[in-house]
Structure formats: structure tokens, C-alpha cells
Design brief:
The chain has one domain: 3-Layer(aba) Sandwich (Rossmann fold). It is built from 8 helices and 7 strands; from the N terminus they run E-H-E-H-E-H-E-H-H-E-H-E-E-H-H. The longest helix is centred in the N-terminal third of the chain and has 14 residues. It is globular and about 50 Å long. The protein starts with a strand and ends in a 15-residue tail after the last helix. The model has no long low-confidence stretch (mean pLDDT about 90).
Length: about 220
């Protein structure tokens, strides 16, 4: 059974950088699919501007037509913070045959702070991680930043190991800031090449991120 990637986030909104990361990890680890998991209430971030329903819908639009990618509603009904370990518990209860085959996808900046994550030792013992380089923080530098975890780290591309591993993925991804993107949408500034067309059109149609009286963001 091939491994499956789990990519959690606010996706407020989902953008080209997110898609680049998912596709890079899918290729580097030869995954079956990558599932995007929009968080209803992220534990380490300020509350999203768009509702969970809107963010789920935009994610579905962004991945439409790409058989490698899926969207999951695993966190949509959560009233409390969407902790990664709780999401893993929930998914493994639904799909017990896949226990041990899941790969959580995150950035090198987030993984550097793994010790702040809820029940992080359990996570590392129960699932794989794919850690993708962020601008200014190559994933390979985590061996020095987290020396006690270095023995578990593997440079991708490589096969997913039988025991839980940490796979370091150094891939070219679009340097898109969600904060700057939301600001551009608020101001009606161009968002070409940053958002899939269907996502930009959805955001405009539903008035997401827009300041009162702002002009529609031009495209093309």
C-alpha cells in the first residue's frame, strides 16, 4: 500500500505555493495521493478570514482535474483547535488499514518548532513527515537545528520507510505569502499566477477578503 500525504492548513485562500508543495512531495516520495485538510480552527494561527466552508470550497476548486490531489473534510466539524494528532486519530479510526502509511506535509519553519506541537512525540512515533524547504530555511538545516531527530531524517527523493521517518524535501515552490495575497485581494490588486483562476473567481463572487468599495482584482 502506497503512502498518502496529509497537508493541513488554513488555506485562506489556497494558492499556487500550496499546490507546488503538494505536487513536489507527491513526486519526491511517490505518494498515492495528497489530501488537503482545511483546518476549521487552526491552533497556532489567528482565526481565518474566510469561513471553513468557503476555504473547503476554494480548495476543491484549486485541485479539480488533478488526480494526485484530494480535499478532506476531516477537520470541518471540529469545534476546538485542529491539532494534528487529533486529526491523525480520526483518520486512522476511519481507515485503520492505512495506519502507519500517512505522511504529514509541513514547512521547515513549522517543523523547526515541532516541540511546541500538541503531543509531538506521539506524532513522530506514529506517522511520517515530509518537511519542505522554506525561503531562507533549507530543510537540510534541520539536522543541526534538531540534532536529536537527525537520525530519523532522510533526503528526498527516496522511498517512504517502513518505520516513521522525516523526509526532507528541497523543492522549487512559488514564494507566495497568504497575508500579502489577502492584502492584494482586499485592495483589488492583481493576483495573476498567485491563485488558480477558479479560486480567484470564487473569492470575488463571494466578496471574500474585499474591502468595501474595492475594485475587482484584474487578471490577465
Amino acid at each position: 500500500m502506497k503512502a498518502v500525504g496529509l497537508f493541513g492548513g488554513t488555506f485562506d485562500p489556497i494558492h499556487q505555493g500550496h499546490l507546488d508543495v503538494a505536487r513536489a512531495v507527491h513526486e519526491a516520495l511517490s505518494l498515492e495521493t495528497v489530501r488537503f485538510i482545511p483546518a476549521r480552527r487552526p491552533p497556532h494561527r489567528t482565526p481565518p478570514l474566510a469561513s471553513a466552508a468557503h476555504r473547503f470550497a476554494m480548495t476543491a476548486l484549486a485541485i479539480a482535474g488533478d488526480a494526485r490531489l484530494r480535499v478532506s473534510d476531516a477537520e470541518m466539524d471540529q469545534d476546538g483547535p485542529s491539532f494534528t494528532i487529533d486529526t491523525l486519530d480520526r483518520i486512522e479510526r476511519i481507515e485503520p488499514a492505512r495506519t502507519g502509511t500517512f505522511v504529514f506535509i509541513t514547512g521547515s519553519d513549522a517543523f523547526r518548532d515541532i516541540r511546541t506541537w500538541h503531543r509531538w512525540p506521539d506524532l513522530l512515533d506514529r506517522c511520517h513527515f515530509a518537511v519542505v524547504s522554506r525561503v531562507g530555511l533549507p530543510a537540510a538545516t534541520l539536522r543541526e537545528a534538531l540534532p536529536d531527530l537527525a537520525a530519523r531524517m532522510h533526503d528526498a527523493p527516496c522511498p517512504v520507510t517502513a518505520t516513521p521517518g522525516i523526509f526532507l524535501v528541497d523543492a522549487a515552490t512559488a514564494p507566495v505569502s497568504s497575508t500579502e495575497l489577502r492584502q492584494a485581494l482586499t485592495e483589488g490588486a492583481p493576483v495573476d499566477d498567485l491563485l488558480p483562476d477558479a479560486v480567484a473567481e470564487y473569492a470575488v463572487r463571494h466578496g471574500l477578503y474585499r474591502a468595501p468599495g474595492a475594485l475587482e482584482a484584474p487578471r490577465g
